[in-house]
Specification:
Largest sheet: 7 strands, parallel
Strand order of the largest sheet: 3-2-1-4-5-6-9
Low-confidence stretches: none
Bound molecules: NADP nicotinamide-adenine-dinucleotide phosphate
Strand content: 15-25%
Order of helices and strands: EHEEHEHEHEEEHE
Length: about 250
């Protein structure tokens, strides 16, 4: 398998959100890649490790102490790639995407901000120092095209859009500081396309078949994008096909 060819042989990868639809597809693929020596997998729900390269530990994005402990569990190992593949759009009856202003509430905004924007920024705070020096490294977070302010023509989903816009701004800010310290360290946000997972399923009944990716397909596309990233791409938002999305 030729995945992750732009990284060191014996690469070490951390995946936050390894239990999700996209996260579990990435986990299988990365753990089976020949170049990868170790995978540190994190989520709240425990996962079935695809092989013995994988070590799992609990992490809750709403609890910084679990993020710090997760980073500490890596010890002195140098990471090549950190993937934050977590996020929510809805959760039970209490968190649902808003169709109109009347449905907007502080509860939704707060929950989506904490999981989609604050959590990944805290992961960056505790994990960036674990990345290998001098070689190409990548810190990539799943965002969404709907977080682009200039692309917003439909409205709706105010909390989700806003949390992803905040995520994009946080990652751009972090990318600037990181590239001053480590010019070969790339921080990006990625749009996976519409992917058939528990997150999207309530909203994809009218999505054309060729526009709805399986998690394996999305993983394929995004691994290619990650492999082709260059230092000058740091701070950007990229779609599954490698195209830059304007904020
Ligand atoms: N599916 C799509 O069409 C689509 C489109 C655009 C963008 N995205 C983005 O892609 C990402 C992954 O989505 P998905 O479709 O794979 O969703 P999913 O299947 O629902 O997976 C969500 C993941 O987020 C993790 N998570 C949620 N709350 C967490 C918390 N408090 N702490 C730690 N982890 C938490 C879950 O793990 P635990 O529950 O085990 O903690 C799970 O691993 C999201 O950021 C989403 O916005 C998806």
């Amino acid at each position: 398998m030729t995945d992750l060819v732009s990284f060191e042989d014996g690469a070490k990868v951390a995946i936050v959100g390894a239990s999700g639809g996209i996260g579990s597809a990435f986990l299988r693929r990365v753990a089976n890649a020949e170049r990868v020596a170790a995978v540190y997998a994190f989520s709240r729900r425990e996962i079935d490790a695809p092989n013995d390269k994988v070590r799992w530990q609990a992490l809750d994005l709403e609890d910084e102490s679990t993020i710090e402990r997760a980073a500490d569990s890596i010890g002195d190992d140098d990471l090549d790639l950190v993937l934050v593949l977590s996020g929510i759009l809805h959760q039970g009856d209490e968190v649902q995407p808003e169709r109109r202003l009347a449905e907007l509430g502080a509860g939704n905004l707060d929950k989506l901000f904490r999981i989609n924007a604050v959590g990944p920024a805290l992961v960056a705070k505790h994990f960036l120092g674990k990345l290998r020096r001098r070689k190409k490294t990548v810190f990539a977070v799943l965002s969404a095209r709907v977080g682009s302010i200039s692309d917003n023509r439909l409205g709706g989903w105010a909390s989700y859009r806003t949390s992803k816009a905040a995520l994009n701004q946080l990652m751009r800010t972090i990318a600037i500081e990181q590239s001053r310290r480590h010019p070969n360290s790339i921080v990006v946000t990625l749009h996976p396309g519409t992917v058939d997972t528990a997150l999207s399923r309530p909203f994809t009944s009218s999505t054309p078949e060729d526009k709805l990716f399986s998690p394996d397909q999305a993983t394929d596309y995004l691994l290619r994008v990650i492999d082709e990233l260059k230092p000058e791409d740091s701070g950007g938002l990229f779609a599954w096909d490698g195209a830059r999305i304007e904020y």
